[in-house]
């Protein structure tokens, strides 16, 4: 190694240090921005086969929100989900609308959130009753609730109306069907609802 090369090593090290520090600063700023925007929002979702989970992740990313899965104490098997079988678990549960499937964790700490997204699949044109269990196990009063749904084609309207009727004292914002929604549509829905 020449003397000139040796002399340039400290300079090179300083340059690398400056670059790394500025990179770390940028990351910190970005995290701070997200937290400032949305530490008050959380996406809570139930998903039996993964479709609503994907939608939930898109919404959480768009809103910079936290995410929480609503997990049944006893997970639904594919036999449980057979809507053509009138003795399947989902069929039996959903045809007794006062039935409340148990949650794996009974209460979620939602105290720090003022906006709660609630996501679910369409089951017989309704929200699965585990959504009722979730709502009834948590104090959602005074919070803005933003429903979203995935489905095989049905729209969200009936499930929204049923939830409004069951919990008229909660603050319901207009919900969205996520099936074919683009990122731009999701962002527009979030912006409009939270104005
Ligand atoms: C028990 C059951 C009932 C369903 N009922 C309907 C329905 O009435 N209308 C509809 O469009 N889709 C219906 N579907 C389809 C689901 O809503 C759709 O596949 C959803 O995206 C699944 O979400 P997940 O993967 O998050 O569970 C039903 C599915 C199941 C398992």
Secondary structure topology:
Blueprint: H1 3-38, E1 41-45, H2 51-63, E2 66-69, H3 89-94, E3 115-121, H4 129-137, E4 144-150, H5 157-166, E5 171-172, E6 176-177, H6 183-193
Parallel strand pairs: 1-2, 1-3, 3-4, 4-5, 4-6
Helix pairs in contact: 2-6
Flavin mononucleotide is lined by residues 47-53, 81, 83, 90, 121-125, 150-154.
List keywords for this structure.
195 residues; alpha/beta; 44% helix; binds flavin mononucleotide
Mean pLDDT: 86
Radius of gyration: 23 Å
- What is the third-level CATH name, the topology of the largest domain? Rossmann fold
Strand content: 5-15%
Based on DSSP secondary structure assignment, what is the total number of beta strands?
6
Distance between the termini: 64 Å
CATH class of the largest domain: Alpha Beta
């Amino acid at each position: 190694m020449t003397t000139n090369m040796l002399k340039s090593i400290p300079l090179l090290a300083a340059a690398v240090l400056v670059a790394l520090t500025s990179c770390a600063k940028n990351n910190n700023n970005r995290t701070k921005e997200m937290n400032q925007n949305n530490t008050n929002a959380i996406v809570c979702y139930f998903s039996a086969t993964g479709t609503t989970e994907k939608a939930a992740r898109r919404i959480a990313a768009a809103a910079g929100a936290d995410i929480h899965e609503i997990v049944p104490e006893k997970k639904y098997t594919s036999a449980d989900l057979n809507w053509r079988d009138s003795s399947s678990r989902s069929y039996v549960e959903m045809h007794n609308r006062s039935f409340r499937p148990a949650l794996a964790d009974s209460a979620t700490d939602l105290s720090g959130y003022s906006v709660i997204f609630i996501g679910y699949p369409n089951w017989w044109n309704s929200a699965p009753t585990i959504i009722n269990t979730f709502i009834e196990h948590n104090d959602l009063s005074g919070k803005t609730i933003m429903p979203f749904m995935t489905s095989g084609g049905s729209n969200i309207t009936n499930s929204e109306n049923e939830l409004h009727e069951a919990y008229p004292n909660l603050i319901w914002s207009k919900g969205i069907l996520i099936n074919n929604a683009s990122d731009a549509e999701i962002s527009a829905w979030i912006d409009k609802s939270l104005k």
